[in-house]
Amino acid sequence: MADAKNSFYLTTPIYYVNDAPHIGHAYTTVAADMLTRWHRQRQEDVWFLTGTDEHGQKVMRTAESNGVTPQQWADKLVDEAWVPVLNTLNAKNDDFIRTTQPRHESAVQEFISKLHDQGDIYAGSYEGPYCVGCEEYKQAGELLDGTGEHEGQKVCPIHGYPVEMLSEQNYFFAMSKYQDRLLAFYEEHPEFIQPASARNEVLGFVKQGLQDLSISRNTFDWGIPLPWDSEHVLYVWFDALLNYMTALQKNVDGEDTPELFEKYWPASVHLVGKDILRFHAVIWPAMLMAADLPLPKTIFAHGWLLVGGEKMSKTKLTGIAPSQIIDVFGSDAFRYYFMRAIQFGQDGSFSWEDMAAQYNAALANGWGNLASRLAAMVGKYFGGALPQAGEFTDADQHIADVAAKAVADAEAAIDAISPNHAIDAVWTLVDALNLYITEQEPWKVAKDESLAGQGGRLATILVTAAEGLRALAVLLNPVMPIAAGKLWDSLGAEDYLGALDAQPVATAGEFGQLKPGTTVTKGEALFPRLEDTSN
Ligand code: MSP
Known about the structure:
alpha/beta
Protein backbone atom coordinates (compact mmCIF):
# COMPACT_ATOMS: atom_id res chain seq x y z
CA MET A 1 0.00 0.00 0.00
CA ALA A 2 1.17 3.56 -0.56
CA ASP A 3 2.25 5.53 2.47
CA ALA A 4 1.16 8.92 3.76
CA LYS A 5 3.21 10.56 1.00
CA ASN A 6 1.06 8.62 -1.50
CA SER A 7 4.27 7.31 -2.99
CA PHE A 8 5.03 3.76 -4.03
CA TYR A 9 8.60 2.70 -4.68
CA LEU A 10 9.16 -0.79 -6.02
CA THR A 11 12.34 -2.51 -7.10
CA THR A 12 13.43 -5.66 -8.87
CA PRO A 13 16.73 -7.25 -7.94
CA ILE A 14 19.53 -5.99 -10.11
CA TYR A 15 20.47 -8.74 -12.52
CA TYR A 16 23.91 -10.24 -12.95
CA VAL A 17 25.33 -9.45 -16.34
CA ASN A 18 27.23 -12.71 -16.65
CA ASP A 19 24.56 -13.87 -19.06
CA ALA A 20 21.46 -12.79 -20.98
CA PRO A 21 18.00 -12.83 -19.40
CA HIS A 22 15.84 -15.94 -19.31
CA ILE A 23 12.16 -16.16 -18.39
CA GLY A 24 13.01 -16.61 -14.69
CA HIS A 25 14.44 -13.08 -14.66
CA ALA A 26 11.60 -11.82 -16.83
CA TYR A 27 9.14 -13.17 -14.27
CA THR A 28 10.36 -10.75 -11.58
CA THR A 29 10.38 -7.82 -14.00
CA VAL A 30 6.86 -8.52 -15.27
CA ALA A 31 5.49 -8.79 -11.74
CA ALA A 32 7.17 -5.50 -10.88
CA ASP A 33 5.73 -3.86 -13.97
CA MET A 34 2.21 -5.12 -13.35
CA LEU A 35 2.26 -3.96 -9.72
CA THR A 36 3.67 -0.54 -10.52
CA ARG A 37 1.22 0.03 -13.38
CA TRP A 38 -1.60 -0.87 -11.01
CA HIS A 39 -0.34 1.54 -8.38
CA ARG A 40 -0.01 4.27 -11.00
CA GLN A 41 -3.67 3.73 -11.86
CA ARG A 42 -4.39 4.24 -8.19
CA GLN A 43 -3.07 7.72 -8.80
CA GLU A 44 -0.06 7.10 -6.57
CA ASP A 45 3.33 8.61 -7.09
CA VAL A 46 5.20 5.56 -8.36
CA TRP A 47 8.90 4.87 -8.87
CA PHE A 48 9.95 1.59 -10.47
CA LEU A 49 13.64 0.77 -10.36
CA THR A 50 15.48 -2.05 -12.06
CA GLY A 51 19.05 -2.48 -13.24
CA THR A 52 22.16 -4.61 -13.38
CA ASP A 53 24.66 -6.02 -10.91
CA GLU A 54 28.02 -5.84 -12.64
CA HIS A 55 30.82 -6.44 -10.14
CA GLY A 56 32.07 -9.63 -8.54
CA GLN A 57 33.87 -12.78 -9.47
CA LYS A 58 31.10 -14.34 -11.51
CA VAL A 59 30.96 -11.46 -14.00
CA MET A 60 34.74 -11.12 -13.98
CA ARG A 61 35.27 -14.78 -14.87
CA THR A 62 32.70 -14.69 -17.66
CA ALA A 63 34.43 -11.66 -19.14
CA GLU A 64 37.83 -13.36 -18.88
CA SER A 65 36.60 -16.47 -20.59
CA ASN A 66 35.26 -14.27 -23.40
CA GLY A 67 38.55 -12.45 -23.72
CA VAL A 68 37.27 -8.97 -22.82
CA THR A 69 37.43 -6.72 -19.76
CA PRO A 70 34.60 -6.99 -17.24
CA GLN A 71 33.49 -3.47 -18.13
CA GLN A 72 33.38 -4.29 -21.84
CA TRP A 73 31.43 -7.43 -21.10
CA ALA A 74 28.95 -5.60 -18.86
CA ASP A 75 28.45 -2.81 -21.43
CA LYS A 76 27.76 -5.33 -24.14
CA LEU A 77 25.28 -7.37 -22.11
CA VAL A 78 23.46 -4.29 -20.83
CA ASP A 79 23.16 -2.77 -24.31
CA GLU A 80 22.35 -5.95 -26.17
CA ALA A 81 20.29 -7.86 -23.66
CA TRP A 82 19.26 -6.32 -20.34
CA VAL A 83 17.96 -2.97 -21.57
CA PRO A 84 16.27 -4.38 -24.70
CA VAL A 85 14.47 -7.09 -22.71
CA LEU A 86 12.53 -4.39 -20.87
CA ASN A 87 11.12 -3.33 -24.19
CA THR A 88 10.38 -6.92 -25.17
CA LEU A 89 8.44 -7.36 -21.93
CA ASN A 90 6.79 -3.95 -22.28
CA ALA A 91 8.07 -2.93 -18.85
CA LYS A 92 7.91 0.77 -17.97
CA ASN A 93 10.66 1.36 -15.44
CA ASP A 94 11.49 4.85 -14.20
CA ASP A 95 15.21 4.32 -13.78
CA PHE A 96 17.84 1.74 -14.64
CA ILE A 97 20.82 1.54 -12.35
CA ARG A 98 24.14 -0.10 -13.18
CA THR A 99 26.51 -0.75 -10.32
CA THR A 100 29.42 0.46 -12.44
CA GLN A 101 27.91 3.93 -12.77
CA PRO A 102 29.87 6.64 -10.95
CA ARG A 103 26.68 7.76 -9.17
CA HIS A 104 26.48 4.36 -7.52
CA GLU A 105 30.16 3.88 -6.81
CA SER A 106 30.60 7.21 -5.05
CA ALA A 107 27.46 6.82 -2.93
CA VAL A 108 28.52 3.29 -1.94
CA GLN A 109 31.92 4.56 -0.84
CA GLU A 110 30.28 7.24 1.28
CA PHE A 111 28.02 4.66 2.90
CA ILE A 112 30.78 2.23 3.82
CA SER A 113 33.08 5.01 5.03
CA LYS A 114 30.39 6.00 7.50
CA LEU A 115 30.08 2.43 8.78
CA HIS A 116 33.85 2.14 8.97
CA ASP A 117 34.23 5.46 10.81
CA GLN A 118 31.64 4.52 13.39
CA GLY A 119 33.32 1.19 14.15
CA ASP A 120 30.92 -1.21 12.42
CA ILE A 121 33.67 -2.55 10.13
CA TYR A 122 36.83 -4.31 11.31
CA ALA A 123 39.71 -6.28 9.75
CA GLY A 124 39.94 -10.06 10.10
CA SER A 125 40.31 -13.18 8.03
CA TYR A 126 37.96 -15.82 6.75
CA GLU A 127 38.23 -19.32 5.48
CA GLY A 128 35.33 -21.29 4.07
CA PRO A 129 33.53 -22.69 1.03
CA TYR A 130 32.41 -20.02 -1.48
CA CYS A 131 29.86 -20.40 -4.30
CA VAL A 132 30.69 -18.04 -7.15
CA GLY A 133 27.19 -18.61 -8.63
CA CYS A 134 25.59 -17.27 -5.44
CA GLU A 135 28.53 -14.95 -4.69
CA GLU A 136 28.32 -16.16 -1.11
CA TYR A 137 30.27 -18.00 1.56
CA LYS A 138 28.36 -21.15 2.41
CA GLN A 139 27.99 -23.05 5.66
CA ALA A 140 29.45 -26.56 5.43
CA GLY A 141 26.07 -28.01 6.50
CA GLU A 142 24.20 -26.50 3.51
CA LEU A 143 26.35 -28.21 0.88
CA LEU A 144 25.41 -31.34 -1.03
CA ASP A 145 27.60 -34.21 -2.19
CA GLY A 146 28.35 -33.86 -5.87
CA THR A 147 27.42 -36.59 -8.32
CA GLY A 148 28.58 -37.48 -11.84
CA GLU A 149 31.39 -35.19 -12.94
CA HIS A 150 31.34 -33.54 -9.49
CA GLU A 151 31.63 -36.84 -7.60
CA GLY A 152 33.69 -36.47 -4.43
CA GLN A 153 33.21 -32.67 -4.31
CA LYS A 154 30.84 -30.52 -2.29
CA VAL A 155 28.37 -28.61 -4.42
CA CYS A 156 26.09 -25.59 -3.89
CA PRO A 157 22.46 -26.66 -3.34
CA ILE A 158 21.20 -23.92 -5.70
CA HIS A 159 23.71 -24.09 -8.54
CA GLY A 160 24.80 -27.72 -8.31
CA TYR A 161 28.37 -26.59 -8.93
CA PRO A 162 31.39 -27.29 -6.71
CA VAL A 163 32.15 -24.63 -4.12
CA GLU A 164 35.68 -23.24 -3.78
CA MET A 165 37.63 -23.09 -0.53
CA LEU A 166 38.69 -19.50 0.08
CA SER A 167 41.02 -18.22 2.70
CA GLU A 168 41.44 -14.46 2.71
CA GLN A 169 42.17 -11.35 4.73
CA ASN A 170 38.88 -9.48 4.78
CA TYR A 171 37.02 -6.68 6.39
CA PHE A 172 33.93 -7.61 8.34
CA PHE A 173 30.65 -5.90 8.99
CA ALA A 174 29.64 -6.38 12.62
CA MET A 175 26.28 -7.81 11.65
CA SER A 176 25.83 -10.04 14.68
CA LYS A 177 25.25 -7.05 16.91
CA TYR A 178 22.05 -6.29 14.97
CA GLN A 179 20.55 -9.72 15.58
CA ASP A 180 18.25 -8.71 18.43
CA ARG A 181 17.14 -5.52 16.73
CA LEU A 182 16.35 -7.50 13.59
CA LEU A 183 14.29 -10.04 15.49
CA ALA A 184 12.41 -7.26 17.27
CA PHE A 185 11.78 -5.57 13.93
CA TYR A 186 10.42 -8.76 12.33
CA GLU A 187 8.15 -9.15 15.35
CA GLU A 188 6.80 -5.60 15.15
CA HIS A 189 6.41 -5.66 11.38
CA PRO A 190 4.88 -8.96 10.28
CA GLU A 191 4.42 -7.47 6.79
CA PHE A 192 8.19 -6.95 6.40
CA ILE A 193 8.89 -10.41 4.97
CA GLN A 194 6.26 -12.02 2.76
CA PRO A 195 4.86 -14.54 2.11
CA ALA A 196 4.59 -16.32 5.49
CA SER A 197 6.81 -19.20 4.37
CA ALA A 198 9.60 -16.73 3.58
CA ARG A 199 9.15 -14.98 6.90
CA ASN A 200 9.39 -18.27 8.78
CA GLU A 201 12.55 -19.23 6.95
CA VAL A 202 14.24 -15.95 7.84
CA LEU A 203 13.09 -16.02 11.47
CA GLY A 204 14.47 -19.53 11.87
CA PHE A 205 17.75 -18.52 10.28
CA VAL A 206 18.30 -15.41 12.39
CA LYS A 207 17.27 -17.14 15.62
CA GLN A 208 20.08 -19.65 15.10
CA GLY A 209 22.48 -16.76 15.56
CA LEU A 210 24.01 -14.30 13.12
CA GLN A 211 27.70 -14.18 12.29
CA ASP A 212 29.58 -11.09 11.25
CA LEU A 213 29.77 -10.72 7.49
CA SER A 214 32.90 -10.69 5.39
CA ILE A 215 32.47 -7.64 3.16
CA SER A 216 35.66 -7.42 1.15
CA ARG A 217 37.80 -9.48 -1.20
CA ASN A 218 41.45 -8.92 -1.96
CA THR A 219 42.32 -11.61 -4.50
CA PHE A 220 40.78 -9.81 -7.48
CA ASP A 221 39.98 -6.21 -8.28
CA TRP A 222 36.61 -6.15 -10.12
CA GLY A 223 34.62 -4.18 -7.58
CA ILE A 224 34.39 -0.93 -5.68
CA PRO A 225 37.65 -0.24 -3.82
CA LEU A 226 37.34 0.30 -0.09
CA PRO A 227 38.05 4.00 0.55
CA TRP A 228 40.41 3.22 3.45
CA ASP A 229 42.21 0.24 1.89
CA SER A 230 42.36 0.10 -1.90
CA GLU A 231 43.88 -3.41 -1.81
CA HIS A 232 40.33 -4.59 -1.17
CA VAL A 233 37.17 -4.41 -3.22
CA LEU A 234 33.76 -4.39 -1.59
CA TYR A 235 31.87 -7.72 -1.45
CA VAL A 236 29.51 -7.72 -4.42
CA TRP A 237 26.32 -8.18 -2.38
CA PHE A 238 27.12 -5.24 -0.11
CA ASP A 239 27.68 -3.18 -3.24
CA ALA A 240 24.55 -4.48 -4.99
CA LEU A 241 22.04 -4.06 -2.16
CA LEU A 242 22.91 -0.39 -1.91
CA ASN A 243 21.61 0.21 -5.44
CA TYR A 244 18.10 0.61 -4.07
CA MET A 245 19.28 3.66 -2.20
CA THR A 246 21.98 5.09 -4.45
CA ALA A 247 19.59 5.24 -7.42
CA LEU A 248 17.51 7.76 -5.50
CA GLN A 249 20.49 9.84 -4.41
CA LYS A 250 21.84 10.84 -7.80
CA ASN A 251 20.60 10.59 -11.37
CA VAL A 252 22.62 9.06 -14.22
CA ASP A 253 24.21 12.41 -14.90
CA GLY A 254 25.58 12.43 -11.35
CA GLU A 255 23.32 15.25 -10.18
CA ASP A 256 22.03 15.06 -6.62
CA THR A 257 18.34 14.20 -6.45
CA PRO A 258 17.32 14.86 -2.82
CA GLU A 259 13.71 15.25 -3.92
CA LEU A 260 13.62 11.64 -5.16
CA PHE A 261 15.09 10.36 -1.96
CA GLU A 262 12.69 12.40 0.11
CA LYS A 263 9.69 11.25 -1.92
CA TYR A 264 10.42 7.56 -2.29
CA TRP A 265 12.67 6.37 0.52
CA PRO A 266 12.23 3.81 2.04
CA ALA A 267 11.08 1.31 -0.59
CA SER A 268 7.51 0.04 -0.45
CA VAL A 269 8.40 -3.36 -1.90
CA HIS A 270 11.61 -5.09 -2.86
CA LEU A 271 10.60 -8.00 -5.09
CA VAL A 272 13.12 -10.83 -4.96
CA GLY A 273 13.34 -14.50 -5.86
CA LYS A 274 13.43 -16.85 -2.90
CA ASP A 275 17.10 -17.67 -3.55
CA ILE A 276 18.11 -14.15 -2.59
CA LEU A 277 15.71 -13.62 0.27
CA ARG A 278 18.24 -13.72 3.12
CA PHE A 279 20.45 -11.06 1.57
CA HIS A 280 17.43 -8.77 1.45
CA ALA A 281 15.73 -9.70 4.70
CA VAL A 282 18.80 -9.99 6.92
CA ILE A 283 21.89 -8.27 5.53
CA TRP A 284 20.10 -5.32 3.94
CA PRO A 285 18.08 -4.24 6.99
CA ALA A 286 21.16 -4.72 9.21
CA MET A 287 23.11 -2.40 6.88
CA LEU A 288 20.35 0.19 7.07
CA MET A 289 20.12 -0.10 10.84
CA ALA A 290 23.85 0.51 11.03
CA ALA A 291 23.45 3.62 8.88
CA ASP A 292 20.44 4.75 10.90
CA LEU A 293 18.15 4.79 7.88
CA PRO A 294 14.48 3.78 7.67
CA LEU A 295 13.87 0.18 6.57
CA PRO A 296 11.83 -0.90 3.55
CA LYS A 297 8.21 -1.82 4.17
CA THR A 298 8.18 -5.24 2.51
CA ILE A 299 10.51 -7.80 1.03
CA PHE A 300 8.43 -10.18 -1.06
CA ALA A 301 10.05 -13.46 -2.14
CA HIS A 302 8.52 -15.16 -5.15
CA GLY A 303 9.15 -18.72 -6.24
CA TRP A 304 11.15 -20.15 -9.10
CA LEU A 305 10.28 -21.16 -12.60
CA LEU A 306 11.29 -24.76 -12.67
CA VAL A 307 12.49 -27.01 -15.43
CA GLY A 308 12.47 -30.69 -14.60
CA GLY A 309 11.86 -29.81 -10.96
CA GLU A 310 14.93 -27.54 -10.76
CA LYS A 311 15.36 -23.76 -10.94
CA MET A 312 15.60 -22.72 -14.56
CA SER A 313 19.11 -21.48 -15.17
CA LYS A 314 21.55 -20.67 -17.91
CA THR A 315 24.29 -22.57 -16.08
CA LYS A 316 22.20 -25.72 -16.34
CA LEU A 317 21.31 -24.86 -19.95
CA THR A 318 17.61 -24.78 -19.14
CA GLY A 319 17.09 -21.07 -19.73
CA ILE A 320 14.41 -20.00 -22.22
CA ALA A 321 14.80 -16.46 -23.59
CA PRO A 322 11.63 -14.34 -23.16
CA SER A 323 11.63 -13.54 -26.89
CA GLN A 324 11.23 -17.23 -27.74
CA ILE A 325 7.77 -17.14 -26.17
CA ILE A 326 6.91 -13.52 -26.95
CA ASP A 327 7.63 -13.94 -30.67
CA VAL A 328 4.84 -16.53 -30.77
CA PHE A 329 2.30 -15.22 -28.27
CA GLY A 330 3.09 -11.52 -27.83
CA SER A 331 4.12 -9.71 -24.65
CA ASP A 332 0.58 -9.35 -23.29
CA ALA A 333 -0.04 -13.09 -23.30
CA PHE A 334 3.39 -13.70 -21.76
CA ARG A 335 2.61 -11.27 -18.96
CA TYR A 336 -0.86 -12.72 -18.45
CA TYR A 337 0.34 -16.30 -18.38
CA PHE A 338 3.13 -15.88 -15.86
CA MET A 339 1.14 -13.57 -13.62
CA ARG A 340 -1.93 -15.78 -13.53
CA ALA A 341 -0.78 -19.35 -13.88
CA ILE A 342 1.64 -19.31 -10.95
CA GLN A 343 0.68 -18.47 -7.40
CA PHE A 344 3.03 -15.61 -6.56
CA GLY A 345 5.36 -16.88 -3.83
CA GLN A 346 5.32 -20.48 -5.02
CA ASP A 347 7.30 -22.33 -7.67
CA GLY A 348 5.76 -23.00 -11.06
CA SER A 349 6.67 -24.27 -14.45
CA PHE A 350 6.12 -23.33 -18.05
CA SER A 351 4.95 -25.54 -20.86
CA TRP A 352 4.18 -24.59 -24.45
CA GLU A 353 1.01 -26.72 -24.37
CA ASP A 354 -0.36 -25.02 -21.28
CA MET A 355 0.54 -21.59 -22.58
CA ALA A 356 -1.23 -22.27 -25.91
CA ALA A 357 -4.28 -23.68 -24.12
CA GLN A 358 -4.55 -20.63 -21.84
CA TYR A 359 -4.04 -18.27 -24.75
CA ASN A 360 -6.90 -19.81 -26.67
CA ALA A 361 -9.30 -20.30 -23.79
CA ALA A 362 -8.86 -17.13 -21.74
CA LEU A 363 -7.49 -14.58 -24.17
CA ALA A 364 -8.62 -15.37 -27.72
CA ASN A 365 -11.98 -16.99 -26.85
CA GLY A 366 -12.59 -15.37 -23.47
CA TRP A 367 -11.72 -11.71 -23.39
CA GLY A 368 -10.82 -11.09 -27.05
CA ASN A 369 -13.95 -12.66 -28.49
CA LEU A 370 -16.17 -10.79 -26.05
CA ALA A 371 -14.69 -7.48 -27.18
CA SER A 372 -15.05 -8.21 -30.87
CA ARG A 373 -18.63 -9.49 -30.51
CA LEU A 374 -19.72 -6.36 -28.69
CA ALA A 375 -18.15 -4.07 -31.29
CA ALA A 376 -19.69 -6.12 -34.08
CA MET A 377 -23.17 -5.91 -32.56
CA VAL A 378 -23.00 -2.17 -31.89
CA GLY A 379 -21.92 -1.87 -35.53
CA LYS A 380 -24.65 -4.10 -36.88
CA TYR A 381 -27.59 -2.94 -34.77
CA PHE A 382 -26.76 0.70 -34.07
CA GLY A 383 -24.50 1.75 -36.90
CA GLY A 384 -21.45 1.80 -34.62
CA ALA A 385 -22.80 4.39 -32.16
CA LEU A 386 -23.27 3.29 -28.56
CA PRO A 387 -27.03 3.46 -27.92
CA GLN A 388 -28.94 4.93 -25.01
CA ALA A 389 -29.68 2.20 -22.44
CA GLY A 390 -33.11 1.64 -20.92
CA GLU A 391 -34.06 0.35 -17.47
CA PHE A 392 -31.60 -2.06 -15.85
CA THR A 393 -32.99 -5.51 -15.06
CA ASP A 394 -31.59 -7.83 -12.39
CA ALA A 395 -29.37 -9.49 -14.99
CA ASP A 396 -27.78 -6.13 -15.90
CA GLN A 397 -27.44 -5.12 -12.26
CA HIS A 398 -25.72 -8.43 -11.62
CA ILE A 399 -23.00 -7.50 -14.11
CA ALA A 400 -22.51 -4.14 -12.40
CA ASP A 401 -22.29 -5.95 -9.05
CA VAL A 402 -19.73 -8.41 -10.40
CA ALA A 403 -17.67 -5.49 -11.71
CA ALA A 404 -17.76 -3.70 -8.35
CA LYS A 405 -16.72 -6.85 -6.52
CA ALA A 406 -13.99 -7.56 -9.07
CA VAL A 407 -12.49 -4.13 -8.35
CA ALA A 408 -12.65 -4.57 -4.58
CA ASP A 409 -11.18 -8.08 -4.67
CA ALA A 410 -8.46 -7.16 -7.14
CA GLU A 411 -7.48 -4.13 -5.06
CA ALA A 412 -7.18 -6.33 -1.96
CA ALA A 413 -5.10 -8.85 -3.91
CA ILE A 414 -2.74 -6.13 -5.11
CA ASP A 415 -2.30 -4.96 -1.52
CA ALA A 416 -1.45 -8.54 -0.61
CA ILE A 417 1.06 -8.63 -3.53
CA SER A 418 -0.87 -11.45 -5.13
CA PRO A 419 -1.02 -10.70 -8.86
CA ASN A 420 -2.59 -14.05 -9.70
CA HIS A 421 -5.50 -13.44 -7.32
CA ALA A 422 -5.94 -9.94 -8.72
CA ILE A 423 -6.29 -11.40 -12.23
CA ASP A 424 -8.60 -14.15 -10.97
CA ALA A 425 -10.82 -11.44 -9.47
CA VAL A 426 -10.91 -9.48 -12.73
CA TRP A 427 -11.61 -12.62 -14.71
CA THR A 428 -14.89 -13.14 -12.82
CA LEU A 429 -16.09 -10.21 -14.91
CA VAL A 430 -14.88 -11.70 -18.20
CA ASP A 431 -16.69 -14.93 -17.40
CA ALA A 432 -19.83 -13.20 -16.17
CA LEU A 433 -20.02 -11.08 -19.32
CA ASN A 434 -19.62 -14.06 -21.62
CA LEU A 435 -22.39 -15.87 -19.77
CA TYR A 436 -24.53 -12.74 -19.85
CA ILE A 437 -24.26 -12.44 -23.63
CA THR A 438 -25.06 -16.13 -24.05
CA GLU A 439 -28.09 -15.89 -21.79
CA GLN A 440 -29.42 -12.54 -23.01
CA GLU A 441 -29.14 -13.56 -26.66
CA PRO A 442 -29.03 -10.02 -28.06
CA TRP A 443 -29.21 -11.41 -31.63
CA LYS A 444 -32.69 -12.74 -30.79
CA VAL A 445 -33.77 -9.55 -29.02
CA ALA A 446 -32.71 -7.66 -32.15
CA LYS A 447 -35.34 -9.46 -34.16
CA ASP A 448 -38.15 -7.87 -32.16
CA GLU A 449 -38.49 -4.32 -33.40
CA SER A 450 -40.20 -3.15 -30.22
CA LEU A 451 -37.06 -4.09 -28.24
CA ALA A 452 -34.41 -3.04 -30.72
CA GLY A 453 -34.51 0.78 -30.66
CA GLN A 454 -32.87 3.43 -28.48
CA GLY A 455 -33.65 2.87 -24.80
CA GLY A 456 -34.87 -0.66 -25.55
CA ARG A 457 -33.76 -4.04 -24.28
CA LEU A 458 -31.16 -4.61 -26.98
CA ALA A 459 -29.56 -1.25 -26.23
CA THR A 460 -29.45 -2.01 -22.50
CA ILE A 461 -27.72 -5.33 -23.09
CA LEU A 462 -25.09 -3.83 -25.34
CA VAL A 463 -24.44 -0.86 -23.06
CA THR A 464 -24.12 -3.19 -20.06
CA ALA A 465 -21.60 -5.28 -21.96
CA ALA A 466 -19.76 -2.16 -23.12
CA GLU A 467 -19.53 -0.86 -19.54
CA GLY A 468 -18.19 -4.23 -18.44
CA LEU A 469 -15.59 -4.10 -21.21
CA ARG A 470 -14.65 -0.56 -20.23
CA ALA A 471 -14.01 -1.79 -16.68
CA LEU A 472 -11.95 -4.66 -18.09
CA ALA A 473 -9.79 -2.33 -20.18
CA VAL A 474 -9.00 -0.31 -17.06
CA LEU A 475 -8.39 -3.31 -14.80
CA LEU A 476 -6.37 -5.33 -17.29
CA ASN A 477 -4.24 -2.44 -18.50
CA PRO A 478 -1.56 -3.15 -15.86
CA VAL A 479 -1.31 -6.76 -17.05
CA MET A 480 -1.93 -6.51 -20.79
CA PRO A 481 -1.42 -2.89 -21.81
CA ILE A 482 -1.44 -3.53 -25.55
CA ALA A 483 -4.77 -5.38 -25.68
CA ALA A 484 -6.33 -3.05 -23.10
CA GLY A 485 -5.25 -0.08 -25.22
CA LYS A 486 -6.84 -1.59 -28.33
CA LEU A 487 -10.07 -2.15 -26.43
CA TRP A 488 -9.98 1.42 -25.12
CA ASP A 489 -9.63 2.66 -28.69
CA SER A 490 -12.44 0.43 -29.84
CA LEU A 491 -14.76 1.81 -27.14
CA GLY A 492 -13.92 5.36 -28.25
CA ALA A 493 -13.83 6.59 -24.65
CA GLU A 494 -10.54 8.46 -24.76
CA ASP A 495 -12.09 11.71 -26.00
CA TYR A 496 -14.12 12.28 -22.90
CA LEU A 497 -12.73 9.86 -20.27
CA GLY A 498 -9.07 10.53 -21.08
CA ALA A 499 -6.07 8.25 -21.55
CA LEU A 500 -6.34 4.66 -20.39
CA ASP A 501 -3.21 4.85 -18.22
CA ALA A 502 -4.85 7.66 -16.28
CA GLN A 503 -8.06 5.77 -15.48
CA PRO A 504 -8.39 5.16 -11.75
CA VAL A 505 -8.90 1.52 -10.79
CA ALA A 506 -11.01 2.49 -7.78
CA THR A 507 -13.91 3.73 -9.91
CA ALA A 508 -13.51 1.28 -12.79
CA GLY A 509 -16.52 -0.71 -11.61
CA GLU A 510 -18.91 2.22 -11.65
CA PHE A 511 -21.27 1.89 -14.58
CA GLY A 512 -22.69 4.77 -16.58
CA GLN A 513 -19.35 6.22 -17.67
CA LEU A 514 -19.72 5.65 -21.42
CA LYS A 515 -21.69 8.27 -23.30
CA PRO A 516 -24.53 7.34 -25.66
CA GLY A 517 -23.52 8.17 -29.22
CA THR A 518 -19.86 7.22 -28.68
CA THR A 519 -18.39 5.59 -31.76
CA VAL A 520 -17.54 1.96 -31.13
CA THR A 521 -15.27 0.45 -33.75
CA LYS A 522 -14.32 -3.11 -34.45
CA GLY A 523 -10.56 -2.94 -34.61
CA GLU A 524 -8.14 -5.80 -35.05
CA ALA A 525 -8.58 -8.80 -32.75
CA LEU A 526 -7.13 -8.34 -29.26
CA PHE A 527 -5.64 -11.83 -29.46
CA PRO A 528 -5.36 -13.17 -32.99
CA ARG A 529 -5.78 -16.90 -33.29
CA LEU A 530 -2.49 -18.73 -33.37
CA GLU A 531 -1.35 -20.03 -36.68
CA ASP A 532 -1.32 -23.78 -36.63
CA THR A 533 2.34 -24.75 -36.69
CA SER A 534 1.76 -28.44 -36.13
CA ASN A 535 2.22 -29.38 -39.78
N1 MSP B 1 22.51 -9.88 -8.69
C1 MSP B 1 21.73 -10.59 -7.76
C2 MSP B 1 20.66 -9.72 -7.14
C3 MSP B 1 21.17 -8.50 -6.45
S1 MSP B 1 19.87 -7.52 -5.84
C4 MSP B 1 20.58 -6.42 -4.86
C5 MSP B 1 21.07 -11.78 -8.45
N2 MSP B 1 20.96 -11.71 -9.77
S2 MSP B 1 20.36 -12.85 -10.68
O1 MSP B 1 20.46 -12.33 -12.01
O2 MSP B 1 21.01 -14.08 -10.43
O3 MSP B 1 18.88 -13.05 -10.27
C6 MSP B 1 18.00 -11.98 -10.29
C7 MSP B 1 16.59 -12.41 -9.97
O4 MSP B 1 16.12 -13.35 -10.93
C8 MSP B 1 16.46 -13.08 -8.60
O5 MSP B 1 15.32 -12.56 -7.93
C9 MSP B 1 16.23 -14.52 -8.95
O6 MSP B 1 15.44 -15.16 -7.99
C10 MSP B 1 15.48 -14.39 -10.26
N3 MSP B 1 15.54 -15.62 -10.97
C11 MSP B 1 16.62 -16.21 -11.57
N4 MSP B 1 16.25 -17.44 -12.01
C12 MSP B 1 14.95 -17.67 -11.71
C13 MSP B 1 14.03 -18.67 -11.98
N5 MSP B 1 14.36 -19.77 -12.61
N6 MSP B 1 12.74 -18.46 -11.60
C14 MSP B 1 12.32 -17.31 -11.01
N7 MSP B 1 13.17 -16.35 -10.72
C15 MSP B 1 14.51 -16.54 -10.96
O7 MSP B 1 20.67 -12.71 -7.77
